[in-house]
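Now read the record:
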Amino acid sequence: MVNRKELDPEAGPGAAFGARLRRLRDERGWTQEELGERLGCTGSHVSAVETGRRQPTRRFSSQVDRVFGTGDRFERLSMAARQTALLEGFPSYLEHEARAAEIRLYEVGVIPGLLQTPEYASALGDSTVKRGVAVREQADERVALIAQRQASLVRTPPPLVFVVLDESCLLRPIGDKSLMDAQFAHLLEFAEQPNTVLQVAPFSIGVRRPITLPVTMLTMPDRSLMSYAESASRGHLDRDSGAVLPILADYHQLQAESLPRSASLAMIRTLRKGTS
């Protein structure tokens, strides 16, 4: 097509949304005007969203999900596109997380988003606003995005979720005692689900800890692997199995060194008693 702009889904949240929108539109052989008619907008509006010149609104995104039958996938992407505080690379990860057959998490210092209560997530968001890292709208979008990510875990069949929490995640107080009590209760409830495994990596592991930074690994329905890790400035999604397999091996070693499930839950229950 003449003057058709090439799209790079890795360029940012809006680009990821636009590239996916164009791909599904092309698969159906629709023009931008034809898609616009189905969405209740103009073809020029569709063009602006596809090329990243206009951010998708929540209403627009929900209409896209309705037209393409994609559940809430576009609505999730639109939240990432509007949330400028998200690290580059994270929106692409979110798409894969929503389809993964297995999710493996290791977190340090803070409860990971998939396990946060709304109050815990809000407290973290409030902190970013007070420190000037984010504005209120961005913090609220983050909380809403966490809720949508958690909702995506309740699907059929549900993904297997393996979580290893560094002990620092449990010892770092967020909010008041009642907030932490509710967060600990939520962790215990999460651990009782048939598709989850929750372990704690105690400080006593010492030098035997094979992973020192937070990492997430996904196993997709076709059994392909990918890993996601963040630096201070961006997130990186790695689909190269040659690079991911050593991380997976380290994760298995971390699980072996961590407390077994029963001892991990006992630690959480003990800490919870201190919040009551």
